[in-house]
Amino acid sequence: MIIKRYLNKEIISTLLAVTLVLMLVFLSQQTVRYLGYAASGKIASNILLPLLGFEIPYLLVLLLPLGLYLGMFLVYSRLYADSEIVVLNASGCGYGRLMSATVPLTLLVAIVVMALALWVNPWLASQKDKLIAKGMTEENILKTLMPGRFHVSADGRRVIYVESVSQHRKQVDNLFIAEEKKPGKDALGKTQPEQPSQVIISAVQGSPLYDKTLKQHFVVAANGYRYEGVPGQNEYKIIQFKKYAVHIPDTALGGSSDRELQEGVPSARLWSQYSKPTYAAELQWRISLALSPVLLALLIFPLSQVKPRQGRYLMAIPAILIYTIYINLLFVARHWVELGTIPAYFGMWWVHAIFLLVAIYLLKSRLGWRYARNF
What is the pTM of this model? Predict the structure, then answer.
């Protein structure tokens, strides 16, 4: 019992340290990414902290198995390097008991990862999309604009510039909007030029407007001019106005790609529509994340075995290499299932089967079958 508490204490401390350091690294990268989105007008700046909070459970799913893997490796390799494993074996604590001492901790991590991957993270992904959409409210359309910078829309057809923004973000000064107008027929049925025309709006002031009926955002330009024409031609329309409403499509992020949309789909729905390759790949990916701590724990005991005076980090490079290959194969298998290259019943399971055979082989070659029978 004392040995189990000692091993689990050492592994947990290393697991928490590794997970915390890696999470800070990845969160800093996400912070830079979201700051770039806020600067380009894709998200409102007031939702940056909540968005980073949504990233923490997603990162835990990926980092907890890695933290457990490295924690077990460092603890067991130190036992071998300091000859403590010899003393434990002489005291009647064989390899089987040492391996079984960390089984409860491994299962606990696997259960936490399973809960996060199957239920918590899909719910958080849907809440994240709602938060981004909610950020674009009646007054928040101007919160995505930074004064003194040109903001390009997601489709690349619109450029917005404001010189200054009021303190409460309800008014802007010196508004400039340049928009490409697609060729087509006007209101009178007259065919427009094949070459797209350009519409430029310059106004002294601007304010946000949200139409609840249309559920669309507008910017009301005040005291300005509207220019429309084809670049390179002399024929231009110039209109002076006191107030002019300009439709501004939402440029907020919201899970535009198929994979981002699937992350917010509940696991029960993925199972009910398992025949779809994309849904099958997403469900298998979530289950694979929960299986990874168990498979990695089986690999650790033979990989951490070093002879005295060889150094505890001798097998660190092979251990990290095996983990890298395992994770990358899971990504590749997921992509193949999404594309339909391999059938869903074969799916990502072959990766787990290969590494289970590798773990059995390493246990046999480095420890011998007699220790496996005692486990």
Answer: 0.77
